[in-house]
Give the backbone structure.
Amino acid sequence: MADGRLKEIWASFEAATTRKLVNRAVDHIQVPHRRDWRADDEAHLRQGFEEPSTTAFAALKARLASKAKKAERRSGRSAKSDSDTTLSETAQFAPETDAARDLIKALKSTDYRVRRPQFDYVDQVRIPEKKSWFSGKSKSAAPKNAADKKAFRLF
Amino acid sequence: MTSEVVLMNRQAVAMAADSAVTISGPQYLKTYQSVDKLFPLVEGQPVAVMIYNNAEIMSTPWETVISLYREAVKGRALDTVEAYAEDFMAFLSGNPDLFPADHQDTEFFKHVAVVYTVIAEDFDEQVRKFAEKNGARLGGHLSSIFEFVVGELYADYQRYPDDNARADLSCFPQGMGEQVRRRYRSEIEQLIDSLIAALKREHPGLAVSEATRERLREIAVFSVTKDAFFEHYTGVVFAGFGGREKFPAMRSYLTSSVILGILKRKQDRRADMSADGGPVVQPFAQDRMIRTFLTGIDPYLRMFMFGETLKLSMNIVTDLIGRAPGLSDSQRQALFRDYSENNMGYALKEFFKSIDSYQYQVHTYPIYRAIGSLPKRELGETAASLIKLNSFQQKVMHSIETVGGPIDVAVITRNGGLEMKSDKADL
């Protein structure tokens, strides 16, 4: 589509301009695509591949829940609340701290030459449904600093 | 695409390049494997030049331009590799015979058309993604999506990905942006109209605000003046010995179009061998396998592992603090902030540094030590082997081999001059 778009834009410009144009062809121009390494790498992943940090954290959650259940059975008490047996959603909303941001920036700088990060309008307008960090209130629909969001989406 | 490498030790420089070129269009993608990317720069002088990415400058093959330069300078020696590089850039810039004014105008219009095509492509992609999830509501979001993609590119021209302010290119004089804006005002408007018309053909409901149009005007100017090469650009690598250089040197540039008599360019890498310095290994363009070989780990796997380690650590700390009894929300927040900023961040940085140090000592250093003392023939063979690694990976893993074909090698010594070896079949 990109090369088609270039031809469309160029043809429309050629028709409008009064400038003398030379070497008018644009067929040979390779339009740079906004792609990064993930697109190629992800093509090799199986459908529904889960990030290792998510898998590891889910395993940890399961292990903690199972330990808590065993402990309850041993003590003969039923769980008063599920806060100790099932993990809250809070960990899913780990805030982007400055230290983490610095770290990611440093990692990203290493990789940066001409690549640009991917971005997503859908993410930009999505209203989070989950609870916010620790407080239990809904998160604001407004995204945090766009640069921070971009930096985090690197991984 | 391309894979190229420069290896330097105190005695010699080896440059190697593959021969693949990729030609793509709306309905096709094809590669040919017989293209020249490595050339002698000046007749009889120990300096060579390699190109990667775009095979043309101003719709003229680089090979042609380099041969015109070679004819023009008639074997003239210069003191340093940097002087050769700058002389070549000056030949492209101030040469109305090569690129007359109306040619420069046309190429500027193409340059902006390509940048606007990037926007159109982003818009198409965002619309597709939005429609997949919210098909019925697309109409009400078209203008916001366009504003969003224009804003993203505008922001990319303002800041580097590490969030520092993006600099202006030093190759242009002060006021270059204003000159571009004044000279091409009406054509930039026509290109904006062309972009919007192209998108409206499929999305008649698209409306573009004056603020967004102004951003598009600024993007056209930034695409010239800012230190960003989002258009079709060429990497140009010079290496060898200047007349007064005892040890070899390398300079590489990103180059784009000649605009108002000045070639848009920036020097992006430089390396000078010295009596006590280590060898130089500089891969260009598709360099993944070369970097993997040199470091013992795929660079993207490294990024992935570091990122996942960071995320898992944050999740565990967040969870732990969330479970601690008897703390208020604000205490939890403060504890997390303190722990992540002062302790976890520090520990992770040290962890990553330590891994990098291990990587260097175990994998990189032994290779560098060997390259540092290789004779010229072996240096050339090593350079060619690194390119072969990339070719082989492409052959095995990708259906389209964008790196491949015969490998051209140049070996340069002060004593023996420039020697080139090509495996290509004769015509």
User: Anything to note?
Assistant: Residues 329-372 of chain B form the longest helix (44 residues). The CA atoms of residues 25 and 31 of chain B lie 12 Å apart. Chain B has a mean pLDDT of 90. The longest strand of chain B covers residues 249-259.
